Amino acid sequence: MAAVTAIGKHLIDTIREDCSTMIQFFKDSNKREFRINRGAE
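Given the sequence above, the corresponding structure tokens read:
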């Protein structure tokens, strides 16, 4: 049972890191689009 918990925790940590990376990516691309849109005005 302990092994399953360890694997599960590792998976959750990996998923959490992926989510953080994706959120950061979306924030960065939103900033970029915002700058482009403001420049077009």
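The chain has a mean pLDDT of 85. Try to locate this feature in the token string yourself.
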